[in-house]
Design brief:
Blueprint (H helix, E strand, L loop, with lengths): L1 H5 L2 E9 L5 E9 L6 E2 L2 E2 L7 E9 L4 E9 L6 E7 L5 H12 L2 E7 L5 E8 L2 H24 L4 H11 L4
Length: 169
């Protein structure tokens, strides 16, 4: 958590059950203490905030990594984060993405550096985004199955390589 806070954000998408309902993916975005969108520890603007996503597939020779960029349009400047998924290594990663492709919206929780919830909303997930994520998920699963058959599957090496490419380690 300390290293992620030093990078100014902590962001994750994980399966959750809210109020004993069905399992669904949820987005948790933790702001740094000095985030521009905070004033005396409170979030500037009431929300709901516009949320944008972009996704990419990293085809490393040891595993496949799906990168999901998240942008939350908070005033005075947007907050950006990246979630990296290794679907063949963690069921949590696979399940989080799979749930995103099936649900109509994504619960979003924005918190301060101490994980106090400052804002929550539901982000609509359109069909184009869900279809794009489904395509990336299917490609990652197929590709990782082939890599496993060759005996070269090493998700940690792929994860480290993507972090290095992005200058994150």
């Amino acid at each position: 958590m300390v290293a992620l806070h030093a990078a100014n954000v902590t962001v994750t998408i994980t399966p959750v059950q809210i109020d004993h309902g069905e399992w669904q993916a949820a987005l948790f975005f933790v702001l740094a203490e000095d985030a521009a969108c905070l004033n005396k520890g409170q979030l500037i603007g009431r929300g709901p905030f516009t949320v944008g996503f972009d996704a990419d597939l990293h085809e490393h020779h040891n595993a496949t990594v799906i990168e999901l960029g998240v942008e939350i349009a908070t005033p005075p400047e947007s907050q950006n984060g990246t979630v990296l998924f290794i679907t063949g290594h963690s069921s949590n990663h696979f399940d989080g993405l799979k749930l995103m492709t099936e649900q109509d919206d994504l619960p979003l929780f924005i918190a301060d550096a101490y994980c106090n919830v400052l804002s929550q909303q539901r982000v609509p997930l359109n069909q184009a985004l869900k279809a794009g994520l489904r395509g990336l998920l299917d490609e990652a699963v197929r590709r990782d199955a082939l890599i496993r058959m060759t005996g070269h599957y090493d998700p940690d090496a792929a994860f480290t390589a993507v972090l290095s490419q992005r200058g994150m380690n």
